[in-house]
Amino acid sequence: MKKILLSLGAALLLAAGAQAQTSYGLKAGVNLGKYSNPSSIAKDYQVMNPSFYVTGFADLPVASQFSIQPGVSLQGKGNKFKFDGDGADGKISTNVMSIEVPVNAVYWIPAGSGNVFLGAGPYIGFNISGKTKGSGNLGGFGGEGEQDIEFGSGDGEMKVIEAGANFMAGYKLSNGFLINAGYGLGLTALNNSGDNYSNRVLSFGVGFQF
Predict the structure, then answer these.
(1) Which residues does 40 contact at the CB level (< 8 Å), separation at least 6?
(2) In whole angstroms, what is the distance from residue 138 CA to residue 90 CA?
(3) How many CA atoms lie within 13 A of 79 on its CB side?
(4) Helix or strand or coil: residue 24?
(5) Which of 63, 24, 53 is nearest to 203 (CA)?
(6) What are the residue boundaries of the Outer membrane protein beta-barrel domain, all occurrences included (predicted)?
(7) Model pLDDT, residue 19
(8) Which residues does residue 66 pair with via DSSP β-bridges, in sequence order?
(9) Are 196 and 158 in contact (CB under 8 A)?
(10) What is the enclosing helix (H) or strand (E) of 138?
(11) What are phi and psi of 85, to 5 degrees?
(12) Which residue segments constitute the domains of the chain, with CATH numbers given?
């Protein structure tokens, strides 16, 4: 999967050419993350876990109203459960920081004094740190606690590398100011055991393209 995504990214960059001047941009905003495939017991208590993202990108025009955007992004992802009833009253959250490398194809639609944009493309992410935290009364155990997430190939560890697809939409003003929303669909399992779960991340933010 890693080789496929990197090969695709390289091919898109080579295809970009120099038909118009390359521009650069920065975006930042809020991530609302969760994991796929919660257990039947836990799914009723799953809520979005808030975090943040910061992304730098290049915009390489390849045709009228069409460009390729490779980038590098710091992404906060994770999952959260809030329990209320059935002998439990508290929350458990998992927070993971990832360095993500996306390559998006973007279509621009002139609208008013700016452009609506729609985009999609693959990403590969490298998980670099994480914690699981719990608080409240959970199954008779009260108080607060946290534990570092271990990354590796063991059954109790989270994978270092994940991959998926990005989808985005927004509006770029004529002065370069961006308003954008996105969705990250993880396509590879985060764990090494049989309970396969992956990232789902909804994002909202602003930015500027120079």
Answers:
(1) none
(2) 6
(3) 16
(4) strand
(5) 53
(6) 19-189
(7) 47
(8) 63, 107
(9) no
(10) none
(11) 115, 175
(12) 2-209 (2.40.160.20)
- Mean pLDDT of successive 10-residue stretches along the chain, which has 210 residues: 54 49 96 91 88 98 95 97 78 96 98 96 97 78 80 92 98 97 97 88 97
User: Which residue's structure tokens are 């998006």?
Assistant: 104
CA of residue 27 relative to chain centroid, distance? 13
In the chain, DSSP assigns E strands to: 23-35, 46-47, 49-63, 66-85, 88-111, 114-137, 144-148, 161-172, 177-186, 199-209
Closest CA to 161 of 87, 84, 98, 69: 98
Q: Which residues pair with 84 in a beta bridge?
A: 89
What is the C-alpha separation between 88 and 49, in angstroms, rounded?
Answer: 19
Q: In this structure, which amino acid lies at residue 94?
A: T
Q: Which residues contact 130 (CB under 8 A, 6 or more apart)?
A: 78, 94, 95, 96, 97, 148, 149, 151, 158
Query: How far lies 201's CA from each of 35, 69, 132, 165, 185, in Å?
Result: 9, 19, 18, 11, 7
pLDDT at position 74 is 98
> Can you give the length of the chain in residues?
210
Looking up tokens 């999609």, which residue turns up? 120
